[in-house]
Design a protein that fits this description.
By secondary structure, the protein is α+β, with helices and mostly antiparallel strands. The chain folds into four domains: about 85-230, Adenine-n6-DNA-methyltransferase TaqI, Chain A, domain 2 (Alpha-Beta Complex), CATH 3.90.220; about 260-315, no CATH class; about 325-375, no CATH class; about 380-485, Alpha-Beta Complex (Adenine-n6-DNA-methyltransferase TaqI, Chain A, domain 2), CATH 3.90.220.20. Helix content is about 35%, strand content about 15%. The protein contains 15 helices and 18 strands. It has helices at about 5-10, 10-15, 20-30, 45-60, 90-95, 135-140, 190-200, 205-210, 220-225, 235-275, 280-300, 305-315, 330-340, 355-365, 480-485; strands spanning about 85-90, 95-100, 110-120, 125-130, 135, 155, 165-170, 175, 180-185, 225-230, 380-385, 395, 400-405, 420-425, 440-445, 455, 465, 470-475. It has a five-stranded mixed β-sheet. Strands 11-18-15-16 form a four-stranded antiparallel β-sheet. Strands 12-14-13-17 form a four-stranded mixed β-sheet, with no helix packed on it. A hairpin with a 7-residue loop joins strand 15 and strand 16. Helix 3 (about 20-30) packs antiparallel against helix 10 (about 235-275), helix 10 runs antiparallel to helix 11 and helix 10 packs parallel to helix 12. The longest helix has about 45 residues, at about 235-275.
Length: about 475
Amino acid sequence: MNLKTFFEHFDTLAEAPNGIQRLRELILDMAVRGKLVPQDPEDKPASIILDKIQKKRLASRKRYLQPKSIDPLVCNGTLFDLPQLWEWCRVGDIANVCLGGTPSRQDPTYWNGSIPWVSSGEVANCVIYSTKEQITAQGLANSNAKVYPKGTVLIAIIGQGKTRGQSAILGIEACTNQNIVGLVFETDDIFPNYVWKWALSIYESSRSVGRGGAQPALNCQKIRDLFFPLPPLAEQKRIVVKVDELMALCDALEAAQQTRNTLRQKLRASALDGLMNAPSNTDLETAWAFVRDNWELMCDRPEDVEGLRKSILQMAVRGRLVPQNSKDEPASKLASRIEAESKRPIQKEKINNSEQLTQVIASKKFFSLPNNWLWVRCEEITTFVTSGSRGWAEHYSSRGSIFLRIGNLDYSSIEVDLTSLQFVDPPAGAEGLRTKIETDDLLVSITGDTGMIGLARPNLPKAYINQHIALVRLSKLVFSECISC
């Protein structure tokens, strides 16, 4: 992507899924590739900076330290093309890579002093102006800790979770623990903030360098050997200014997105509440029209649809999704027919107008039903309820009947998932044969991820269930698909 296209589509990129984070990564990547700001042919080339550092090291160390060579063949596919005045080098060519230390916790005179001490968890892609702990001059003298100047770039080399590879820059003088390396610069020709932007840009790749072992880690030598794209000093500063400007814009866009998301969530919640609690059919139609016509304003993520799905199901089981027809057979008569079919009396606790049962309903937080509906217990509309049995493993087979497990059910659908199947071939008389599934049976997960529902469709092959699933066989007078929802 060229610079013009990038800026023209900045806002559009930000609105993409996870767009702000990806935009920040793109900004840093373009910055260290020399694609974020234009080059100035009048700038002093980066090669002069490297020569200056090496001459300074030669003078101070009495012998010339040859920079580690960069073999183009070895680095093929790793290094990218740089602008004309830039140079590839290694981190060790531009900075002293130092390791910190931790004073003994057993000696109280080493702690609670005035020298800021940075722990790995504080190296969190930030500027450090203060620390949680401080050490004393005694603690400093009796440990490997060393005071780094302001502008030192820190990289965490060991740490749990996302810590390893994260970086920070010191806004104060401070020392660090031994799980952090400090990049200390020997010349003003290296702009610390540019080096920090580079460290931010290589977060993922630096973590891969530190993989391996019981506790994956980087180390000083691995950091020294990292390839570094060095621009002229003037361009280092221009890059930092532009990166900071664009990151501030990302922050503003993110804040605006969060504000919009909050308003969107409130609007969605209010609209769905109006849908659920509409006092009349006319109000219900109005509320539904508002949701239907404005859903794009209220929803911008797939998970937002879940709220609407739940509201629709709630309205369905409360008798608010479709109008009632006074000519329909009342549910009380349907219950009587089910009772006659099963030749068992329906419990007298089914909902009627008695004061006692009204109190029972209220205590269980039941909701009001339309006039021709009826509350009944599940057992009153079922003919058979059971769970699977154990001991199926000895009947596993490469062919035969399907053996359904919890993995074949899902919260988001009543369809049985047949993509991953186990087969069984039980002998005649096996105890588990009682769990043979029939068309329109409901399957309910009863352990682990409880409450998942599956509906046995007519095309389901011969199948059985394991002990983690319950089989619910409804009366033929009941519409199974409605109950399963």
